[in-house]
Amino acid sequence: VQLQASGGGLVQTGGSLRLSCAASGRTFSLLSMAWFRQAPGKERESVAETNWNGGRSTYADSVKGRFTISRDNGKNILYLQMNSLKPEDTAVYYCAGGLVYPARKFDYWGQGTQVTVSS
């Protein structure tokens, strides 16, 4: 499975962005999928994760109530809707796929997409 993230950009505080992660291959619908982010000088952190059909999801405390992870298995796309963005959300965002939910190890990674939130 190959993953390609897109949708990042520059947005003002309080604004919204929707990230997409397009997957190739027929196994996307079997994977647990997640979004991670890494800010400059910080470790990569998990933002949100969803199971194979989107029926179960978990979120980092820092994004609960503001971000929503979803997926369209018919289109092989994972989404991250980000609302009420804050400067501390600025980071490179990555999508990843794992074999179980919740995944302790992710076997597939996309390239990052930059999200910058200006104050």
Describe this structure in words.
With 119 residues, the protein is an all-beta fold. The protein contains no helices and 11 strands. The protein has strands at residues 2-6, 9-12, 17-24, 32-38, 45-50, 57-59, 67-72, 77-82, 91-98, 106-111, 113-118. The chain is globular and about 40 Å long. The termini are far apart.
Short description:
With 119 residues, the chain is mainly beta.
Low-confidence runs: none
Major sheet summary line: 11 strands, mixed
N-end to C-end Cα span: 37 Å
Number of strands: 11
Determine the structural class based on helices, strands and strand pairing: mainly beta
* Radius of gyration, in angstroms, nearest whole number: 13 Å
Give the helix proportion (percent range).
under 10%
Strand content: over 45%
Series of secondary-structure elements, N-terminal to C-terminal: EEEEEEEEEEE
Average pLDDT, all residues: 96
Please state the overall shape, judged from the principal axes of the Cα atoms. Answer: globular
Q: Count up the helices.
A: 0
Keywords:
single chain; 119 residues; mainly beta; eleven-stranded mixed sheet; 55% strand
